[in-house]
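Can't attach files on this board, so I'm pasting raw text. These are the components:
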Amino acid sequence: MPPVILDSRKLLAFATLARVCSFTQAARELSLTQSAVSHAIKGLERDLGVRLFERMGRKVTITEAGRQLLQHTDVILAEMQHAREDMAAFGE
Amino acid sequence: MPPVILDSRKLLAFATLARVCSFTQAARELSLTQSAVSHAIKGLERDLGVRLFERMGRKVTITEAGRQLLQHTDVILAEMQHAREDMAAFGE
DNA sequence: TAAAAATACTCCATAGGTATTTTAT
DNA sequence: ATAAAATACCTATGGAGTATTTTTA
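---
Top answer:
Structure tokens for the assembled complex are below.
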């Protein structure tokens, strides 16, 4: 992954986990396995060099860095949504 | 790739190609091969079901759909940049 | 002890490279 | 004839799965 961008699949996993605060629940919503979500978040944390969630046992809570990132992620995902809609309007 | 998101690597290739209008030049800027850029654009076009560039021989020109997408892409890439900067501020 | 996250593998899709072909100056 | 894009083929990285281990409510 080039250093200027972020992996959008990981961002989607991140945003979902941030909302539901459960790896297994997020996995269900994403149609993935708990393992895949765990990897995605771990990968994103490694990529950014920042801890995004605090795992105290089975309690998953977002960190301050995570809260910051979530704001950007919401913008990014919304813009991707709009882009898809616009492109769909070009038919076929 | 889930149907709600877009591949950020392909978006970066797209934005670069849109700027320089040359696959080989874009490849140089991205530290990729011409082949990789060609694949990326083709993949993005297939994913969106839209033609993003007109290739008349060695002339590469962006389409109307491409122009539309570029606006979204600029927002997305800029937001990713800001996200990285914010995360970098959290140190390590 | 039961439910949830982490981890250790395995597999496969695909991103990206090299080499070649095609095409338009 | 040459420079650039497309294409064929190959490789390797990593995304995602299954199974298992670890952990704490």
